[in-house]
Amino acid sequence: MASNIKRVLPLYTVDAFTNKAFSGNPAAVCLLDHQDLDDDMKQKIASEMNLSETAYVRLLNDGESSENASSFEIRWFTPTNEVPLCGHATLASAAILFHVVGNKSEKLTFQTKMRGDVFASRHGNLISLDFPLYDTEKQDGSVKPFKEVIQATVGKMAVQDLQYSAETKTFIIRLDDSITRDELESHNPDTTAMLNLDPQGQYFYDVILTLKGSRENTNQQSYDCLSRVFSPLFGLPEDPVTGSAHAVLASYWSKQLQKKTLYARQASRRGGDLHLKVNDNGRVDIAGEAVVILKGQITV
Question: What is the chain's alpha carbon radius of gyration, rounded to the nearest angstrom?
Fold first, then answer.
């Protein structure tokens, strides 16, 4: 006889990379005990939540609880797909463990399915993520598939540089320094065309528009760089604030500006701020704040 026993799991929503509610990037966080959920159920919950990512955080070691464990498994699902790495949902997960559950660890280890271990630690109001750093290589915008993606993404806007990370399938389009922040924020890429050019994700997971920071284009803020991130393959025409994208952007802008410490703004409609520190060990610290919006339970 089939069992009718249901599981009741804690479920939260968190706005990441912001200290203001209803800005930054919203993520759902589902805390699992030692018993996992199957992937189909994870995808169904993520589709139901309909946020850019839902993170599943599972206990690994017998005898531990969310209050006292320091190592967890983490996986991330968009409404349509599992993704290999997600910064803002990891930040959201750490915020729940630190600030809601009351975990006393200074540093948390998250074991991922595809990107090794990532880490989260607390520093005052900031939570810092320790992520891999991904290098990029310069590209020729006149050849396929980059030519078509550039046209769909920027139209007639002036482009200064093109970079690509093969490991993460991230394409960076650096806009000319003459472009203003207002122009970046008001621009409307053809995300449908972007998806149709590479519907299976053979070349592109993320396409990033980025701009060098200056007083003129940062409204007097001291940002080193600004960006917008588009991920139509994962059902996200635009991702509001993307920690994992900054594991690529930090590599590029650190070299361009000859700086190890950067202050970045993702200039989506919701917007968010990220503190970046490029380390000599091939990793990057990505730090930000988070606001817990909703606390609840889900029955599965």
Answer: 19
HEC letters along 157-209: CCEEEEEEECCCCEEEEEECCCCCHHHHHHCCCCHHHHHHHCCCCCCCCEEEE
How many Å apart are CA 91 and CA 98, to the nearest integer?
10
- pLDDT for residue 130: 97
Are the CB atoms for 269 and 282 separated by under 8 Å?
no
What's the token pair of residue 25? 């990037």
pLDDT in tens, 142-184: 998 899 999 999 988 999 999 999 999 999 999 999 999 999 9
> How far is the CA of 38 from the CAs of 42, 44, 59, 134, in angstroms?
6, 10, 15, 30
- Mean pLDDT, the chain, integer: 94
Which residue out of 53, 82, 238, 289 is catalytically annotated?
Answer: 53
* Separation in Å, CA 72 to CA 32, 116, 161, 200, 226: 10, 12, 39, 31, 32
Helices (H), 25-127: 39-49, 87-95
Q: Can you list the alpha helix ranges (DSSP code H) found in the chain?
A: 39-49, 87-95, 146-154, 181-186, 191-197, 243-257
- Residues ≥6 apart with Cβ < 8 Å to 233: 81, 195, 198, 199, 201, 204, 205
pTM: 0.92
Which tokens hold the place of 141? 């915008």
For residues 234 and 247, the answer to whether their CB atoms sit within 8 Å is: no
Phi, psi values for residue 46, rounded to 5°: -60, -40
Residue type, 101: V
53 assigned to active site: yes
Q: What percent of the chain has pLDDT over 70?
A: 99
**Which residues have CB under 8 Å from 64's CB, separation 6+?**
none
* Cα–Cα distance, 89 to 251 (Å, whole number): 21
Give the C-alpha separation, 198 to 169, whole Å.
11
- pLDDT tens digits, 95-114: 999 999 999 999 999 999 99
